[in-house]
Each structure stands twice: as C-alpha cells, then as structure tokens.
Amino acid sequence: MLTRGALRAHLLDVRLAGVVATSREVSLRSYRLFAARDPRVLIGIDPGGEWGQRELLGLMADRCGVSADPRDTSGQDVIDPDRTLAALDAFADRLAAVAERRAPVLLGTGHPHRLLGFYVALAEALSAAGCTVLTPAQGRSVDITTRFGLRTLVLDYVRGVASVREPAAGHAGGEPGVHTHSPLPVRTVLAAAAETGGPLPELVIGDHGWVCGAGQLGFEAIGPADTDDPAPFVGEAEGLVSVAVPLDDAVRPEYYRPLTRYVLNRACLSR
C-alpha cells in the first residue's frame, strides 16, 4: 500500500511535481494565447469569465503552485506536490462515486505515449467494479487542424481507452501514438454514442481536449493537466471540469504507476 508520504516523495523524485520539465516561457506563452482566446489552447473550453494574463497567472498559482510573479519569466515551472495530492484525492473520490453506481464511463487521452497505461489501469478497475467502459465511434475519422494543415486521424481504443492514430497505422493492440490537444475526438465519440441511443458516460476521464471538450458539453470530467495547459483549470474554476490534477503530463509512462496504485486504493478499486 503506497502511503501519501511515499507518493509525495515519488512526485518530487521523478519531477511529476516540484520543479518540472515545463518551462516558464512555454507556460506564459500559453496564458497569453488563452487570454487571446486562441482555440489551440482553449482545447474545447469556452470560458464564461474574463481571463486575462494576470487572472490566469493567479489561477495557475492557486491551482498548481506556479510563481504568481509576472516578472518571473524564465526557468522551469514548479508544481506544489501537496496540491497534486489533494487533487488526486478528489480524482479518486470521483472514481469511487462512479464505481459505486456502476455507471458508464469514457476514457480518452491526447497523450497515448505517456498516459495510456494510467488510463488502461483505471478502465480495467472500473470495469471490474461493474462500470460499462464505453467505446463508441471505433474507427471513425476525425479531421484535426494542426500547424501543418488539416490532418485526418482515426479513433481507436486500446483496452478501453480512446485516442487517435494515423489511418495507415492499423490496430495491433498497442498504443495508437498520436498526440493531440483537440476536443474533436471526444465530441465525435459523444455524438456517436448519442446517435446510437446507447448509454452516455456519467464520467469522462482524460486529458487535453478529452476532459475540456467533455466538460464543456456538460459531462462530468476529470483528468491531469500540466502548467502550460490552463484550460482544464479554467474549466474547473468555472464548474465545467470536476477535477484537474496538476502534474507533468509528459514523463516516462512507468512514473505514473504509483499514482495509479494510490488513486485505485483510495477509491477502493484495488484488486
């Protein structure tokens, strides 16, 4: 059983929290773009409030622990591990609630190379608890605009977790491997579920556009977010996202395993 103290030490040791790899320059650029309502950083959230750079910096300082000083413009960002732990507790509590109801869930990631294993473990635990892990729109094409132009990707599920892959990649039971911030995949999935008249998720678990896009559409959504992704935290502040967990979302996949053990144990979903 992983103690809270041991997890805190792990967060700092592998830089999931504490001094993280995300640079201050990258984070501040994201805040500027969000303040300008750039869809690349809104990732599905349509903010109702006035979120200028100063307000965003204050929010990220409060939710993540980054420096609130606008004169701090270089170096590495910092995430307060105690804020991460508190958010993981809230995340686990939402898992426990949906498992108790045996409610349908949807899991998806824009970070399949890093976070797929984390979500797969959650999907398997929730399925074992009696939840239906939804997999609508398998194989459906999604046109996503990138800086290189329009890109057609294909929705795929790996052990219950959705992401997008290249059309020519095929499905071999491994990770699809395409990184995206777009909310279009989750919108496509939810629309397909509604079209078929099947169950809709009572909880969406994911990151980037998955958590923001689902939350904006009125679905309860939870997931991790880095310091250069203000959208989930704005969504949380405005009541669109249920839980945003501050952590580095691009470390080695095995570094997330202790987090998995911790949240599943707290949610009473450990095997």
TrEMBL record:
Domain of life, per the record? Bacteria
Extract the InterPro entries matched here.
Phosphatase_SCO2771
> What protein name does the entry list?
Phosphatase
What species is this protein from?
A: Streptomyces lienomycini
